[in-house]
Each structure stands twice: as structure tokens, then as C-alpha cells.
Amino acid sequence: MDAVVQYLRDHQAEHLDWARVICRIPSISTKPEHADDVRSAITWTHDLCERIGLTAAVHETGGHPVVVATHCEAAGAPTYLIYGHMDVQPEGDLSLWDADPFDPVVKDGKLICRGSADDKGQVLLHLRAVAAWLATEKRLPINVKFLIEGEEEIASPNLGPFLKDHADELACDHVIISDTGMYADGWPTITYGTRGLLYKEIRLFGPKHDLHSGSFGGTVANPANVLTELLASLHDADGRVTVDGFYNDVAEATAAEREQIRALPLDDAEYAANLGSPGIAGETGFSTNERRWIRPTLDINGIYGGFMQEGANTIVPKSAGAKVSMRLVPNQDGGKLSTAFDATIKARCPDTVRLEILNHGHADAYMAPLDSKPMQAARKALQEAFGREPAFIREGGSLPILPMFRQVLGADCLLIGFAGPNCNAHGPNENIVLEDVDCGAEATARLFKHLAT
User: Fold this and answer.
1) What percent of the chain has a predicted confidence (pLDDT) above 70?
2) Going edge to edge, which strands form the sheet with 354-363?
3) In the prediction, which pLDDT does 315 show?
4) pLDDT score of 13
5) Alpha-carbon distances of 254 from 240, 257, 259, rounded to whole Å
6) Does 3.55.40.20 match the CATH number of domain 196-250+296-363?
7) Which architecture characterizes domain 2-194+365-452 according to CATH?
8) What's the pLDDT tens digit per position in 190-204?
């Protein structure tokens, strides 16, 4: 490993230039006017893959293209599929940025720009590791395949069909993903679970048009009043979700896992202060990390209806609505809970308003086996590169691609992310700590060796 690691250290400046170049491309997948930029980012990635010694090809999909790159010359060695994405979120409010989101800046040891953490900077870690191995040893100790797409930020609508159509080409023993974060700056982290997602929308309709609240208030049902009563009924006094059967299939965390989670340092007051919140809240009987990682939740994402402009307009609105998301944990079935949610709302909704419930999709939770050989290899590689034992965490968000890889390729996923907790992914001044990036590249190179043995 000495020569491989030394190569990475000698080429840090060059590899930082890679990040600067790719992050200058405004590959915003959700905006049609940036379709050419997404293609440019994929093309640039393809060219880099070939330049460092991989065999690469750009594939068309029903939307943005993907690049597949391979180096499968290690006879008898396992094969690992490395997944990432080169599309990014929109800039957001430019006034909140300290500089142009697509003009990378290095400041205070961080690379600041859109895509630095999510996910361009992290994709490059694996390509840096490949470049170091091929430049020094002329080989890789494992077989690798890269799948790098341009639609992750719009929920990867074409990835599923692409996987199915190219399942043989992408066959692997395991999947490696660096699109998650670290528990703290400088603390390498393995994420072994993510929550699922169920997203619903409630719509209530009353009179045929807005009514004068003085003349008609109190004589017909007010959709906004009914809506707030329905939404308030979805939690009890202990913060538990009251959808019928919501907890029936929850896979409870073991006592050992709860103890391990609670051993991770977290100051509730500091956590709340960093978020600008007056205090901590949630389901009774669980710590903050447990609430955000291992417990299912229900949140109102938005409420609309009636008069919301400046000034006053005394009306009974004709309609009102809300969007509601539920984060699911292992064993909870999104389809089953979707039916349960609808039944609960219908049972509680009076017949004085007309009810519509829209389904905006669901994704399953994911848990990786903690005793797998790739998990243990990652633990060793991270310890060697960072000089400390990695943290093991679950992620409160959802990654639909994880159950997709398991279903289509029959492969589990190893999640090792190197973005810090304050990286501001999707927000202004997105950033990644360069020291963590460099250690991450070294950890990835070491991981290749350990995965081979």
C-alpha cells in the first residue's frame, strides 16, 4: 500500500483540480435548461475514467445519460459495483451563498461549491483510488464496475429500468456507495441502514367558492378547520403516530444497537441550537439519535388553503390541503401503510367536506448486514486511513436505490460517506473538508486491498 498511498498524497493538488473542473458544470437535473450540462458532466466523467485506465461507455436512458466504467482483470477476485451521481440540486437563494455556487472556492480547508459533497466530490474519491492503484501497481486487487448517473436528485426515474436492462453487465458481489456523511468532521463513518419513505397529500373541499366568514361562518364546514383537526389527530401526547397499525410491523432495534447509538456523543441543547430550534421534541422514551435513525415518524411538510397574502380577508375557504411524509423503518411496508393511512383519514374525516388523498410514492427502508466481509473490510480500511475506529450509524433519510440494488442485482450495499455534518448539502455554501476527502481517497484505496482478502 505504501506506493499507492504515496501516489495519492503526491497528487492531491491534481485531484483537487478534478473536483474544481467537474463542480464548475451546473449539472442541475431538475431544470430542463441544464440538460446539456448534465450530459457534459457525464461526458467529462467518462473521459476521466478512460484517462485513468478504465474502460468506459456512456449509455442513453429515457432521461439523462449514465456512464458505466469497468476494470475486471483480477481473475478469481470479487467484483464490486461503485455507484454515484454527477447531477446536483439547484442553487437556491443566491443571496445566501458567499460566492458563485459553480465557481469552486477553497476556504478554511474546505472546498465550497454545489456538488462538492453531494456527490461529485465523493465520486472522485473512488476514481482517485483507482488511478493510484493503476499508476503504481498496474492492476486492481478487485474487479470494479462504476455506475454513475445524472438523475439521483430527481429520484432516479430511469435507473431502475437501466439496471434491469443491464443486469448482466452490472452483476457484482456487492455495491459501494459514497453519498452519505460522517458523524463528525474527521470521524470516518459507516452507514448501515436508511429509513424508507411514504408521501401523501390530503385535500379537503367545502363550498363551491370562498365565503364571507361573517355571513356564512358557522353554518358550513370550514375545510381549513377540518384539516387542522385531522392533522392534529395524527400524533398522541407522547409523540407516537396514531395511524391505525402504524407500529405493527416495526423491527425494533436490539438493546445492543440502542446502547451503541446512545454511546455516540450528542448534546441535545447544542443540537437544537445548531438547528435554530428552541428545544428537542419527539417520541417519548427515545434519544435524539434513536428518533432520527431507528424510529418511524410522520411529519406535515406543508399546509395550504385560504387567504395567505398580506392584509386581511375574512373568508371560509373553499378548500385546504396538506402534504404529509412518513419515514419508515425495516419491516414496515409502504404499500400496506399507504392503505392504513387512507383508511385512518377517511374514518376521521366528517362527511361535511369532500376528501381526496393523493399518493406521491413510497420507498422501502434498508438495513445492511453488519457482519458481512465488506463491512469488516471497510472498518479496517477506515481505521488505517483516519487513525480511529469508524462510527456505525443509521441514516434518517431514504435512499430508494439501496433496496433496488438488492432486488435487481441481489447485492447489498456498503455506505461509506465522507461529507461532514455541516456540509450543507442541498443548501447554500455546500462544502466538503479537504482533509477528510484526502483521507477518504486513501481509505478507499486501502478498502480495495482488504476486499480482495
Assistant:
1) 100
2) 297-305, 319-328, 196-205, 354-363
3) 97
4) 97
5) 20, 5, 9
6) no
7) 3-Layer(aba) Sandwich (3.40)
8) 999 999 999 999 999
